[in-house]
Amino acid sequence: MDNFDFYKGKNRVLLAVDCIIFGFDKSKIKLLVFQRKVDPEAGNWSLLGRFVESDESVINAATRVVEESTGLQDIYLEELRTYGAVDRDPGARVVSIAHYALIRIDESNLTSVEAFNAKWFDFDELPSLIFDHQQMVIDGMAKLRRKVRYRPIGFELLPEKFTIPQLKTLYEAILQKPLDRRNFRKKILSMDILEKLSEKDKSTSRKGAYLYRFNQHNYEALLKEGIHFEL
Amino acid sequence: MDNFDFYKGKNRVLLAVDCIIFGFDKSKIKLLVFQRKVDPEAGNWSLLGRFVESDESVINAATRVVEESTGLQDIYLEELRTYGAVDRDPGARVVSIAHYALIRIDESNLTSVEAFNAKWFDFDELPSLIFDHQQMVIDGMAKLRRKVRYRPIGFELLPEKFTIPQLKTLYEAILQKPLDRRNFRKKILSMDILEKLSEKDKSTSRKGAYLYRFNQHNYEALLKEGIHFEL
DNA sequence: TTAATAAGTGTAAAAATTACGCTTATTTTT
DNA sequence: AAAAATAAGCGTAATTTTTACACTTATTAA
Question: Contact at 8 Å (CB) between B58 and A93?
Fold first, then answer.
């Protein structure tokens, strides 16, 4: 396996990926966690994870975790950071590379909930998690909170068609502060990355709110100009 | 070693850390790279790296790389990201967690240059590097460029005492664009994180420029107020 | 003594952000 | 059928931040 002498006898570790799977429902940020089936800590709440195989890249391993546990494909997924303390897992030396994913809950068939003993929790009502998973969640949320301000990733948490008030509610949930309705609209529309549809969503008001769609093409054009999304 | 059945028979990988070591000299961003001694790619330019041992944390491994190669301690060091493609290293399956370090070149005794065949290169005159190290450097620079705008990490590249024009030159080198002398000064001073000394540095002008020192204490007070460094 | 020059200070114009009031479309209630 | 209620949508004035740019100062070399 090692083709050169230099690598002979070097230490190897178990390398895992753990995924912080974010969702958004109505007005709350949610997290998908599951009940661990194996020891140590069998029965306790944990992030979804697995070991990295020898024939798969790290990002692929994470992708598979998300796909297998949600049944969804083409999910927004990004590396968070490495958790590499020696004793983080009492079972063995395991280094874990945490990733976070953003899911459209409504699209999600419930593969995960049934097959994996998984459950969506409100972000601020999470049960305590095993090992350093609590810290991963805190760090993941901090990253999301930061990144959402300079990259248009919030859309990944909404259905394909969404209203501006809905988008505002999402941002309020992530940033944990109220935003001005009128200024928010002005700002987001001024970027010209939303495509207005003729349909309205009437579920939250009598008047109804127009539906919009994120315009990836316009966004990329914007990036090329050097101008970029900033909320 | 594995205390639980679940871990038995799971795949293990060689886990490495590679360090992008940034420096700053006069008006240029520099990178410390070295000539690899072992196969594959012996003789070619490479980032400093090593394998993570079973009894050290990942961040510790990176710290040791930097300490051993520069002879310096208490260096600013941060994880960049994981490089985990299956074939990134032709010698074996090696997953590498890249880190970047910011060092004050002037303090550096030349341990590295002598003991490690290391050499400082201007950032834009780097030789080509082995494996995916080129990409690590690009990503590291992108991260530095972004982070330097919202965290006061630039100071790590300057001597303890520095002038405002010096600081401006550093920012210009990192951000790769000219900054207005007067506005830069105004902005940085308004944050109240620099301590003015009575000494002047006369090396670059007849008049001389006052020396300043970064005030960690004031910075932390600022963070607590929720206000934060933004350039 | 004077010329030269980087360092340092101030101020006006432009742009972005914030605060907030009024109108509109629609449904439910009277 | 009219009126009340309400989220959605639109505009504008006040404030703050950013940008652009001119002048003065301290010092050394000529």
Answer: no
